[in-house]
Amino acid sequence: MKKMFPATSNTDSQVYNFDSEENSQKWKRLFLSSLQKVLKQVHPTLAAKDDALEYVESLILRLLAMLCARPAPHTVQDVEERVQRTFPNPIDRWAIGDAQAAIEKGRKKSPLVLPAEKAHPLLRDVLQTKIDYQVTLYIVAVLEYISADILKLAGNYVKNIRHIEVTQQDIRVAMCADKVLMDMFQQDEDGEMSGVVEDTNLDTSITYDELVKDLIQEKKTYIRELNMIIKVFRDKLQQIPSLQDSGHRELEIIFSNITEIYDFSVNFLGSLEDTMEVTEENESPVIGICFEELAEGAEFDVYGKYASDVLRSECAETLMEVVSRPDVSDALTSAGHGFKEAVKYYLPKLLLVPVYHVFTYFKDIEMLLSNTESEEGRESLEQVKGLLWPLQSQLERNIQNSAYAPYLKRKIGEINSRHRRQSRQQTLLKMKELQRSIDGWEGKVITQCCNEFVLEGDLLKLGATGKKLTERHVFLFDGLIVLCKSNNRRSSVTGQIGEYRFKEKFLMRMVEILDREDTEEVKHSFEIRPRDQPSVVLLAKSAEEKNTWMAALVMLNTRSMLERILDSILLDEEKQHPLRLPDPSVYQFAIQDSESNIIIEEKENSGTPLIKGATLPKLVERLTYHMYADPMFVRTFLTTYRSFCTPMELLELLIQRFDIPEPVLPPVSEEETQEVKNQQTSIHREILKRFRKEYSQPVQFRVLNVLRHWVDYHFYDFERDKTLLDNLTCFLEKVKGKSMRKWVESITKIIQRRCNEEQREITFSLNRSPPSPKWHIKLDEKDWEAILPINSGGTSTTPDLVRPLLMLHPIEIARQLTLLEFELYRAVKPSELVGTPWTKEDKEKRSPNLLKLIYHTNYVTRWFMRCIVDSDNFEERVAVMMRVVEIMVMFHDLNNFSGIFEVSSALGSAAVHRLEHTKMEVRKRLPPGQLKVFEEASELSENHCKKYQEKLRSINPPCVPFFGMYLTNILLIEEGNPDFLPRAAEGLINFSKRRKVAEITGEIQQYQNQPYCLEVEQRIRHFLETLQPFETENENEIANYLYNRSKEIEPKSCKKPPSKDRKWPNNYLKSPGIKPRNKGMVPNPLPAIFQQSERGPKLVEGADGDDTPHLLTPPTPTTPCTPPPPQSHPPHTAVDNAIFAPVEIGTGNVLTGANEFRGIISGFPSNFLPPQAPPPPPASPQALPPPLPPRVRKREPSIGDTSPKVKQAPDAPELPPRDVSPPPIPPRTATLPRMHSSGGLQHNPTHHHHAPVGHSLHSISNLHHPHTHHHYTHHHRPTLSSLLAPPPPPQQYQLDPPPHRRTNSVDLSSPTPLARRHTNGPQTGLPGSSINDTANDSSDHPPTPPPRLSYRQTFSFPYDQHHS
């Protein structure tokens, strides 16, 4: 045993004191950032806390103190001799090898991560002499090797306990189990080592997904054990000449078909990982098919042959005979300290691992069966269980008849008695119980220095004279061996005492295990030789018992050495057989990464890198990357790729990516000897094997996975282009290979299902039925005929639109509108949004569902407006407006934000807003509760819809979001960012722009996944679907009609409204009433977008009388950016929350930088909507503008911001809203014409151009038309005081637009408010400004529409009182 270096650096032999205050400041944190990089090299997926890295730094500084101790080294040879003299074997050889490699590569090509340049001047101070830089390189290389060894060991431990971050505690525990590192740093029993914190709360429950993850982790550990058998033991024995001469016959008897076991295990693990990769985030993997394929192919039978061979006595006898040969014994002894004992005692037990490991498959199948919810998976697992039953019976018979029966039965019992997640806690509890059973225990708690209990039993201790034998009960842990004596006294006056009495203990890392030959006097003995205590000889009762103890002891004594040998072998194989890629000249996806073809965004502590920009081939390469899978990138790419390539181009690139040519290898020279030829041929074979395993197969599998995702979530691409589908089908038919055909068949099944799929109604079976429809006055057949258009079953050319508003229950109108609008909302696909197709000429083809939503929203708003102005009688008009307000309150209760904005636009329009007498009467009659809810709903559009954003993130779904906000954000991203990266190589697609758009579409889809628990009333639905308030599509005629009717029912400056005859009886006008249900509902914060959760809506019962949840809803279109529906949430305490499901939706990564436009609106641009909204009333040309409001210097929150109210704790008191907006401006009744010029429009400090003008939805052929003013065009919306109060004093504006330059791009990442950087002087037409109705009435002619803007011209979003 070599003498190790001291535990501390403060010794008399050292001149330099690393712990002094002055010196410690020089070295502190010098290596910290470099150690983080070292960790990324050995464990790329793990992170480390600062305390862990600081602890590693302290360890390597102690190592540095030893290397620089007196006599101080001056040359590389001096340092190397010190390493050989003080480092344990075999770590000394590997550290020296790394250091020599660093010196050979020199200073410029040094592969070292630790900063040798910074350490060099400090080392001169330490050694107090000038040293060569190569000495520094050598020392730093040694330090880096040791630090990498420590971090790798700690990382393996962290992965085993399924954590993702390394802590100082993890490093201490991992080192405690490693003899080599413990020897190096001299950690004694009373030192710094501490064990794992115990968790006595055993969680016996485990989910299906946890089982699958544990299964994969277990198979990885098992494959490493197989590598230990094959690469460390078998390959070493194969190198011995005498065994080569015999043709490896003995090795075949010893190891049987272990390589077939290894190949089977690798294939099984690969199948599991492939299944996990193709499984969606919101689904559970169906891994029964992985078992089924292998079971049907009888591939599990390799275990039957192996167990039959290894359990025969011939296997153990042959191994003992081989080890006893002199040449073999010498070769094993020279292989390393303790290697011969490992082959003799540890290898026989290691060979039994596959025999009992196969029983884990049987246990896994049972546990998966008991936890799976998939009927397909259950059937598959049941079939596998039947197929494997004969093998299980055969193995049990072989074990029963073998000499290893007791040991194997104990191992199998451990497998059956607990699952993996309990094993650690149970081990800690068992060690704690064992310590309590030992009376007189001395020293630390066992769990603080040990991680594993290994073995216990009765042995005999040989006395010092060699004659006296005493009985000892021995406990063996991974860090301790404890000798006890049976305690005859079981109780005393002080209470019950332990079963055993403590005698002595030894640290396993401080002892040497020696085998003793049998003599006539002493048989079956072995020796424990501590470094600083007398030796102890222990005797077993039989040879089998001795082998069991020796196997355990030798395993603990040599495990760290064997693990490092295996790591070294695997690393050498990787260097010897590097991964070669195809020739880039024939395979464009093998071109090396460079700044000319790909730019990666630097993200700290992130897993897979984010692509900022790349060429199309590079994007396809990363889409199917061989090193890792990136499901998020696949979703984003398939959602947005149409903005930079066609579907046919993408399919051709994926087919090219799949057809991978093999790398060209140098030919074997004919002049070489046959031995050299064989060696080169073997190397080529291994290179090709690695290429197929690590490059070709992963790439081809991921190509098929992308295709599967494509046809499953974006099949509309193939529906629109039959040639695309034919090309895909032709390609799939040509794919060969058993493993690939499995995934091809899954794609084919999806295609068949999609082709044969009909639009059908989906019924969500819930525990309770939905609330029954509510009726106010039952409509008979004549009533329905009177309100429906002629082409929809009506009898009148002028349908009565007021009748349904008065006769139907306002609650039911709100419910049916909410159901219809939710279905329109959920039908919008991401392809209708990416690239702003709704602004293009073919918008009717590319965005049909979006246009349906826009048209419907227009019609509902105009219906409300016409119903109000068509009511001549004052009482009837008040009743109609009351109904509209009640519907808005119900929209608020149903989380229908689209409906709220519809009503707000109707009440804020010029024709309705001027009806001051009607509004004042409605305000008087509204109950306080409804007034409060109405006021809250009306405020959602204020301050750039800030409150709406907060509200959307605080409610629980289902809901109908306001779609105009999403369109504005997408438009800003599309127009404010170039399609290709500026200031970069030509042709680099700006993929970060597409990612931002995909985040918005992802939020849209996240709210599409949770349906309402409401029932469709077919008659009301038919009326709402055929609703068309005006026969004409001419916006001027609509505007004229509404405004003229408004002046008729309430003339200008009238003191009271004119008296008109009643049309409806009192029972029609009397409202049935509503009950706002927002009281007591505490909003919950929402998780982030793309959060993993379980699939499917889970609704809970409500308490709306006897109403119970049930739902009939059309299917939701799904795409790869469709995030999983949120997991269920405990129901609200409110007893009337029946229609909502207890689910939380992600907050959504809404635009941040783009939303800092002060002039942004929260809705559709006016020209994106059907040209049916009326123009504003006329403005007086002599009107003078009032002074502009002061500019708000304080940055307003962006759309993606959340208020302090949302960020605070759920149970914290509600904070008052912070009003950062300027004082409200009077409603405007005249919209000033927007001037158009080459320079754009004039703007004020809070109103900005930020999007191009799209085509009107009125006519595809007519690209130049009057702007449509729609209720989605919001800015500063009138508050309750302006909606239901008389207009303020008259104010007018004068238009005088100076030209300005338009900024072509918008920096969405800039923290500076864009409003300040895009302001060009004073501006007219302030959003939210208005002119008094008195001024409007100065002219009796209808208003003229504003001038048209040419296509792609800059524009702003003025506030329109007709459709604000």
TrEMBL record:
The keyword Acyltransferase does not apply. Residues 1112-1129, 1171-1190, 1213-1227 have a biased composition (Pro residues). Residues 1050-1082, 1098-1134, 1166-1364 are annotated as: Disordered. Residues 1264-1278 have a biased composition (Basic residues). The keyword Transcription does not apply. Residues 809-1052 form the Ras-GEF domain. Residues 1320-1337 have a biased composition (Polar residues). Residues 1050-1064 have a biased composition (Basic and acidic residues). GO terms for biological process: Ras protein signal transduction. It comes from the Eukaryota. GO terms for cellular component: plasma membrane. Residues 452-558 form the PH domain. Residues 207-394 form the DH domain. Residues 607-755 form the N-terminal Ras-GEF domain. Keywords: Guanine-nucleotide releasing factor. GO terms for molecular function: guanyl-nucleotide exchange factor activity; protein heterodimerization activity. This is Son of sevenless. It comes from Cherax quadricarinatus.
